[in-house]
Task: inverse folding
């Protein structure tokens, strides 16, 4: 099980990114989507690297 704090950190990191609102909720599915797709519009975002690392941890927890 993933730590709730990890979910909160992910949601905070992606809050201002250019991704669909439903993808901003922390889950295995959304973290996997983020890893594959979010770089397209967010690679220059100041929190992209942090969010990607968190997404990898969330996706890897399943």
Result:
């Amino acid at each position: 099980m993933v730590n709730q704090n990890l979910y909160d950190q992910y949601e905070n990191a992606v809050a201002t990114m250019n991704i669909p609102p439903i993808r901003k909720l922390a889950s295995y599915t959304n973290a996997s989507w983020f890893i594959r797709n979010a770089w397209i519009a967010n690679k220059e975002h100041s929190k992209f690297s942090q969010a990607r690392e968190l997404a990898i941890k969330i996706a890897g927890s399943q």
User: Anything to note?
Assistant: Residues 4-59 form one domain. Residues 16 and 31 are 16 Å apart (CA to CA). The helical segments are 4-14, 28-37, 39-42, 48-59.
